[in-house]
Amino acid sequence: MAKIIQHQLFYPHPPEVVWEYITNQELISQWLMPGDLKPILGHEFQLRAKPMPEMDFDGIFYCKILEVIPHKKLSYSWKFGPGNGELCDSTVNWTLTEKDNGTELLLVHRDFAGAVSPLILTSMEKGWLSNMHKILNAINAEKDGAAQA
Amino acid sequence: MEQHRLDVFQVIADPSRRQILHLLSKDSSTINSLAENFDMSRPAVSKHIKVLYHAGFIEIQDIGRERHCILKQDGFKELNEWLAYYDKFWGDKLDKLGALMNDNLNKK
Questions:
Q1: Domains (ranges, CATH) in chain A?
Q2: Mutating which of B58, B76, B85 best tests the A interface, going by the most A Cβ atoms within 10 A?
Q3: Of A42, B20, B25, B80, whose CB is crowded by the most CB atoms within 10 A?
Q4: What is the pLDDT of residues B29-76, one digit of tens each?
Q5: pTM of the entire predicted model
Q6: Which residues, including other chains, have CB under 8 Å from residue A75's CB and lie 6 or more apart?
């Protein structure tokens, strides 16, 4: 079971510019979602999306900066859950590499292992099968992503 | 065996069985190494594993002389659905980021 999400893209802009877009909340709000991210090691912040009760998701991603190497690397924890204090863990890692007068951006969202299982078990306890149908419906209905605040 | 007829909720109502699923969600494991995590006897652990097997949560493969327990993926679609969700989510967002940068920077 793959437990890693990876996207690699090339942007025709220098790493300093791309860095600004992934670390300046004012800009982040324009393409990702509102919140209070600051690229400071240990800074705790939230990113806010639309709640999806069908997916046991309260709409808030709880994050903490784990690594900052300006213009090169940014990592933060990415926790999510139903809003009753039970959170699933994961980490989001951004790597910027200067290439061909632009930037190669690598996004890796991983470390779900062992973290999503509490969610699975919680959902199972609530009604495993019916929940799965709701989740599928939610995904089908949410074609535009979670981040429409 | 009467346990075969347990429904899915009865199967996961037992904390030991939930613990076994937790352990297997991290990695597949032999019955012996699973048993090391519990105070109960190996036959007792084996009995829980049988219940999970018959309920369709896990698969059991004989590798050499060891019996390996593996979490069955179809019972855990939900994790895959979250992963599929995030995969599409980031794909869309990163496209949006590219378009936003192009709009903002090429105008200047």
A1: 5-141 (3.30.530.20)
A2: B85
A3: B20
A4: 999 999 999 999 999 999 999 988 887 778 898 888 888 998 876 545
A5: 0.60
A6: A65, A66, A67, A91, A92, A93, A94
